């Protein structure tokens, strides 16, 4: 292999590597755009983590002091959620 052929081969490989880098950059940009919604949700969850810990601690103390009241509100919440699902499914089928 002559020196000229070797330099041409190196130049060809460098162009190929540069094209791969451009393709990777475009794929990265597309990936970040498509997952941006999930990233925002995750960061929101992480920012609320401290408040969720405080709220769950307060709920644990409250449930120890009055377990019947907590169960009653849990049943009401489940009933409201079930009603909402039923209404949503009934209106979407029309």
What is the structure about, briefly put?
With 94 residues, the chain is an all-alpha fold. Helix content is 94%, strand content 0%. α2 (36-65) packs antiparallel against α3.
The biggest beta sheet is recorded as: none
Note the total helix count: 3
Distance between the termini: 74 Å
The overall pLDDT average reads 91
Strand content: under 5%
The computed structural class is mainly alpha
Helix and strand run: HHH
Low-confidence stretches: none
> What radius of gyration results from the CA coordinates?
29 Å
User: How many strands in all?
Assistant: 0
How would you describe what is shown here?
There is one protein chain. The chain is mostly helical and 94 residues long. The chain is 94% helix and 0% strand. The chain contains 3 helices and no strands. Helix 2 packs antiparallel against helix 3. It is elongated. 0% of the residues are buried.
Task: Fill in the keyword field for this structure.
94 residues, mainly alpha, 3 helices, elongated
Which helices and strands occur, and which strands form pairs?
Blueprint lengths: L2 H32 L1 H30 L1 H26 L2
